[in-house]
Structures are given as C-alpha cells and as structure tokens.
C-alpha cells in the first residue's frame, strides 16, 4: 500500500464505498500518476467491474500495463476499443507503445501516426523517431587537396535539361516493400479447398492458361479480398498462391505505406504498385487492408480519404493493361470496415471467406506442423477432436508447447525422444482458442442487422450454427 496520506484517505473512502465508480476511478488515476502501478492496476480492474465498457478505465488499465512492460495484457485490454471506428486516440498511442514493446514496429507506427493525426497533442517526437528513424546523414566530404595551378577559365556549361524520373530510375519514388520468392504451394495449406479453388480460377489460371482466358476476353490480374477470424491462415494462403504460380511476392505492411507527412502515404502506395508492375507476374499482398481502405464516411480528415482514393486509382490502373499480371490479394479481420467502393468489379470484387478449420483440416494442419519433427505413432484425428474452435495459429501454439516439453525430457535423457499423441493432447489442454468466438459474435451482428446489400450472405450458415 502506498505511504501517502492523501492516497490512504482515498483508499479508505473506496473501501467504505466500494460501488462509488467516480471515487474508484479517481483513486486509480492518482495511483497511476504517482507511479504506484500495481495498486493502480488493481483499482482500474475494480472500476472495470463496475463499468466494463468505460473507455477511460480501459485506457487507464492499459497504461498501467504498458508502464509495467505487460505489453500483451495491454493489447488484450485495448482490443475492444480498437475494434470500433473512431476509438480514443490515447488508446491508439498506448497500443503503439505496447506493439513497439513487443517488437512489432510496423503495426506500432500505424497505430501511433493514425492516433496523432486525430489528436496532435499526443505526439511524442522521441517515440516517433524510434518508429521511423531518420536516414543516416551523408558522409562529410573531405576538403580537396590544393590544385597545382588554376587553369584558364572555361565558359560555363549550359543548364541541364529537366529530366522526368522514369519508373525504376534512382530518381523515381522508391517502395519500402521488398520483392520475395515463396517456397510454399497449396500443398502446404491444409483444407480450405473452396478457397484455393476460388484463387485458382480468379488469379492463377489466367496466367497459367493465357490463351484460353484470352478467348473469353479475360486478362491475367485482378483482386481478391480474403476475410475471416484472426489466425485462420490468410497470409499463409497468399504466400502459397505466389509459390503455386512461381510469381514474385510482395508483402505490404502498414509501415511500408503510412507516413506522417501529407501526401507521402499516397506516393508510397503508388511506388509499391509500380514495384509489382515491374516484377510481374507478381502477387501483391496487403495485410490488415482495412487500415488502408477504410470507409471514407468514417474519416474526419480529408488527407486520410486521399489515401483511399489513391488505392482505388491504383487498382483501376492508368489504362486497361496497367495491372495485367499483378494479382492483388488483401486480407482483413474486419471486412465491414472496408469502403464499399473496393468491392466494385475490377477491384477487390471477390470477397472470399477463410473459415476456421474443421476437424479434418485441423488434423491435416497438425500433420504439416509435425512433419519435420521426430514422431512416435500419432493419432492426429484424436487431437483434432479436442481442439474445436482452434485456428491454424492456435494449433501451432499447441505443437510449440508440446515440443518445448519434449525438448526438456530429451535434454534430461541425452537423446531425442519422439513426440507422441499424449504430448499434443496435454498441450491442447493448456492452450485456449484465441479470438474465433469473439469474431463470430461480431460477424453475427453484421450479418443479422447490417446486411441489407447481401454482402455477408456467405457468413449466414456459420453465424447461425454452433458459434
């Protein structure tokens, strides 16, 4: 308990009046301001019981977590706020600090710059420099040696002509994204046969069989919006699509596009599309695309709407052949926040639901995750039965925990001990599925109450089922 008379009095008053929300909230804020972080956390938790959705209490609790370096707990506390449009800017800054603490500087930069664009008073130049460090200064030129003798003055050369930078030239805008090659194929993706077939027909076959598609006036290129719960394998699927085609793969992160200076984000986006066009056939993958393609009706700043307009223009291309051979894959956990203009034909016109894996798919995922490990006789179907509602990321966590426990046994025995079915079953008991239930609850709200256009009819069988 803090040794402070004023705080002691507040604590006693809160003890005598435990349901007084303003008193508890004031006490928590005072404890936080004076650095009593563990006590502040306890008081914010007590206040949250009285008012579970209070944004000020949630952000106060998150700040207590961040200052105690409990970054995962801070992000978990802030998640309900960040899922709503127009969330408090302070919550965005705290999320940025938590993400930076976990080493995810790309997402941290997006959260920070988006928050301060709405409330500049929250800006922290020192933290911003950590997210976007300035380029190294050029080397200081050394003074030249004294010339032997001055030659006769020559006439001044004519002024150079103004040169327009060409794509790929050193003067052209450069993309922060990088071209990669993918070693994955659809054989490395368990289940999701309907999703893989949709990608084959929409994106892969026009490049693999150009003459056939040209006979019907179909060009290679186009866009698909992958959506579904977190951890279901959207990024893994995009890499596999690039590997299946043998195409270049450009994974675009938010930090590659977003910039604090007006106009820079649009230039970064244009440079990224130019990079893909120079390396066609190319799979251009945008993760968390709702951050770059949010509904313009929800935006308060004109310059943030310009980024959406630029994105739409790049998808259309300057002419009908501009994006031929460029396959645009975008992924999001919140498709209802993506501007409806992106679903127009010729853009991201085919939303594809990436569902949580069923039992057969979970068993196949476990086989892939365990294929390079020493194994005893395995019953992956038994493990799949006890991991209902687990997505691919959750199953990887199960395998990782089982491997860690088996490594400890192997170190003690001095030899590798094969992984067995009981090891996976024991690990599955200690891992809880992540956000699938919460995501399905949110999806149900949109399907049942905000689906006049029929955009989310594909989700109807899922939200009416056991979820």
Structural notes for this entry:
The chain is of the alpha/beta class and 467 residues long. The protein folds into 3 domains: 5-131, Serine Threonine Protein Phosphatase 5, Tetratricopeptide repeat; 179-353, Rossmann fold (3-Layer(aba) Sandwich); 359-429, Helicase, Ruva Protein, domain 3 (Orthogonal Bundle). Helix content is 50%, strand content 6%. The chain is built from 20 helices and 6 strands. The protein has helices at residues 5-16, 21-33, 37-50, 55-67, 71-82, 89-101, 105-118, 125-131, 193-208, 210-215, 234-245, 254-257, 264-278, 302-316, 359-370, 380-385, 392-413, 421-429, 436-449, 460-463, and strands at 179-181, 222-227, 248-252, 282-286, 326-332, 350-353. The protein has a 6-stranded mixed sheet, sandwiched between helices. The longest helix is centred in the last third of the chain and has 22 residues, at 392-413. The radius of gyration is 27 Å and the shape is globular. Residues 134-141, 144-148 and 154-172 have low confidence and may be disordered.
- What would you give as the CATH superfamily of the largest domain? P-loop containing nucleotide triphosphate hydrolases
The sequence of SSEs as H and E is: HHHHHHHHEHHEHEHHEHEEHHHHHH
The description of the largest β-sheet is: 6 strands, mixed
State which percent range the strand residues make up.
5-15%
Uncertain segments of ≥5 residues (pLDDT<50)? 134-141, 144-148, 154-172
Work out the count of structural domains.
3
The value of Rg in angstroms is: 27 Å
CATH topology of the largest domain: Rossmann fold
Question: How large is the count of helical segments?
Answer: 20
* CATH-derived architecture of the largest domain: 3-Layer(aba) Sandwich
């Amino acid at each position: 308990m803090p040794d402070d008379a004023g705080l002691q009095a507040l604590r006693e008053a809160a003890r005598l009046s435990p349901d007084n929300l303003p008193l508890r909230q004031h006490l928590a804020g005072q404890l936080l301001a004076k650095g009593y972080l563990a006590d502040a956390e306890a008081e914010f938790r007590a206040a949250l019981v009285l008012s579970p959705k209070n944004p000020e209490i949630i952000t106060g609790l998150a700040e207590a977590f961040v200052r105690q370096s409990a970054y995962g707990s801070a992000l978990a506390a802030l998640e309900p706020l960040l899922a709503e449009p127009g969330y408090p800017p302070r919550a965005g800054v705290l999320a940025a600090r938590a993400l930076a603490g976990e080493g995810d500087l790309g997402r941290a930069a997006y959260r920070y710059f988006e928050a301060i664009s709405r409330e500049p008073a929250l800006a922290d130049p020192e933290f911003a420099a950590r997210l976007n460090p300035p380029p190294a200064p050029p080397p200081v030129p050394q003074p030249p040696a004294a010339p032997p003798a001055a030659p006769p003055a020559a006439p001044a050369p004519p002024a150079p002509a103004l040169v327009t930078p060409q794509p790929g030239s050193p003067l052209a805008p450069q993309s922060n994204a990088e071209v990669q090659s993918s070693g994955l194929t659809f054989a490395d993706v368990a289940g999701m046969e309907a999703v893989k077939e949709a990608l084959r027909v929409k994106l892969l076959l026009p490049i693999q069989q150009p003459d056939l598609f040209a006979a019907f006036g179909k060009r290679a290129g186009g866009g698909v919006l992958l959506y579904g719960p977190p951890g279901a394998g959207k990024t893994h699927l995009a890499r596999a699509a690039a590997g299946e085609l043998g195409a270049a793969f450009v994974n675009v992160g938010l930090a590659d596009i977003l910039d604090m200076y007006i106009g820079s984000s649009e230039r970064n986006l244009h440079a990224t599309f130019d990079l893909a066009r120079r390396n066609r056939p190319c799979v251009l993958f945008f993760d968390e695309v709702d951050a770059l393609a949010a509904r313009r009706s929800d935006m308060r700043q004109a310059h943030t709407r310009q980024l959406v307009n630029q994105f739409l223009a790049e998808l259309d291309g300057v002419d009908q052949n501009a994006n031929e051979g460029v396959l645009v894959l975008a992924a999001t956990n919140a498709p209802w926040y993506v501007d409806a203009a992106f679903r127009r034909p010729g853009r991201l016109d085919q939303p594809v639901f990436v569902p949580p894996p069923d039992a057969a798919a979970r068993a196949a995922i476990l086989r892939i995750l365990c294929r390079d490990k020493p194994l005893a006789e395995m019953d992956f179907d038994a493990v799949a039965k006890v991991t209902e509602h687990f997505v691919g990321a959750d199953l990887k966590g199960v395998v990782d925990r089982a491997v860690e426990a088996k490594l400890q046994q192997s170190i003690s025995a001095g030899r590798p001990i094969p992984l067995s079915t009981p090891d996976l079953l024991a690990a599955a008991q200690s891992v809880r599925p992540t956000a699938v239930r919460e995501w399905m609850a949110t999806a149900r709200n949109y399907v049942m109450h905000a689906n006049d256009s029929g955009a989310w009819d594909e989700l109807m069988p899922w939200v009416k089922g056991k979820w």
